[in-house]
Each structure stands twice: as structure tokens, then as C-alpha cells.
Amino acid sequence: MSLSIQGRTAIVTGAGHGIGRAIADHFVSLGANVMFADWDETALQVGLAQHDPDSGPVRWFSGDLSQRLTLANLLSATLDAFDRVDILVNAHRLVRETDPLEPDSEAVEEMLRHNVMGPLRLSQIVARRMIRQATDEHDPVQAGAIVNLTTLAGARPDPARMGYSIACAAQEQATRNLALVLAPRRIRVNAVRFGSVMSHELKQSLKADADLRARMLAGTPLGRIAGPDELTEVVHYLVSEGARFVTGQVLTVDGGRSLVDGVTGTVRKGLVP
């Protein structure tokens, strides 16, 4: 089984912080050409100080990834730098609290714009490029790979973050639909649904809620919070030829947290002693 992505070109959104940054750095370490994309230009510049953006396989792009023109410019910048794109990881996420009974709030629309429509549109234009590239190649297995990052919020109601919860569920369904459409073109589309992983957003939540860590550990059968690198390895597998027969799947990486009853906080009978 080959996990090599050496020489491949990847776009990773949300690469200024946390999980997106960890994925992009990991791809660089594996010899891939990587476009780091994020809205936070300062974070990109600071984070990429360890890389050489002028002579190495690394470039960065800053902008509002919910806007059509920005997405088109991101793809153009990638093609200008590397002449192709083989991998897309949609790791950019926006999390906001939502009043579930406030019809005039734009929070739900904001969550859908950033977490669903942005990744979906970027996937569409990148996939079209992958299809054009494939006409000049002879790889019968894989013309490209797309991975969307989502969370357990898509599988469980979360009234305090209703917009984000709806967006995560929608992104998972978009993953399945694109996988069906693109399978004949040899482009695979999968998602990773994570829970107990130390993301940038989780770090902020832990600072704001002193009891959150204890609750998470109690509700995670493996008894710990994973580092971003443990999610990175899963994404690496999904974009490699090792996963060449895997598409349309939502792979859960949460230390068993999805096995736990979200209401009572207890492990469901029969799963864990």
C-alpha cells in the first residue's frame, strides 16, 4: 500500500492555525507542494517562517474563503505556483454561537456560507481542474482526492451552535453527493468527522470553560484529547493511493466519543466496561 504523496500538489484551507496548519505542515514534510490558505494573513506569515516560500514547495494565500472571487484567485495562485492541483483539504471552519429562536439573526447563514458553500464551491472548481488534468494522464486509479473536515456537531443537535451543527451535517451530505458525481472521473471525496482533537477552536473553548476538559475526558472512552497530528495521519491516508478504493465516506476520529450518550454523559451499555 503506497501512502506517498511526494510531488503532489495540495491546497489546504484553514492552514493558518491548528488542524489545518498541522495537515499542511505534514504534507510539506512528505515532499508535497502545498498552498497554505487562510483568512488570517498574519498567522500564515508567522507559521510559514519555518518554510521558505520563495524557493521551496510552499506558498500561501490569504483571503475570505467564503467568497467566489477569492476561491477562484486561490486556485489561480496555486496553478501559477505549481501548474496543477492533486489534493484539496477543506479544513477552514468558522464556529459561532447561534440563538436557535432568533429569525432575524444572520448567524446561520454565516455558518452555511463559510462551512458549506465555501468548501463546496472550492471543491467544484478544483475538481474541474483535476478533470482537465486527467485528460493528459494515464493513471487509471486516481485523478485527485478531496477531504472535508467536519465534527461531531453534524451528527448531534447542538442548539447553542445550531448554525454550525446544521453546516457540519450539510457538509457531510455534500461529501457524499460529490463523491458520486466525481467517482467516474477518478476523483475521490471523503470527510473526516472529529471530536476529541485539539483544534484551534477547542483551545479557545478550554480557556473559556475551566470544566470543559474534565467533561471531555469523562466522555471520551480513550480518556484523552488527541493532538492535531493524530488527525493529520488520517487525512494523509485518505488522500494517498492507499485509500484508492475509499470514497463517499465520513470517517470518525474522536477517541470513541461518539459511542457515549450525549445526554447522560455515560458510555452506552455493552460498549465499554
Automatic annotation (TrEMBL):
This is 7-alpha-hydroxysteroid dehydrogenase. Belongs to the short-chain dehydrogenases/reductases (SDR) family. Keywords: Oxidoreductase. GO terms for molecular function: oxidoreductase activity.
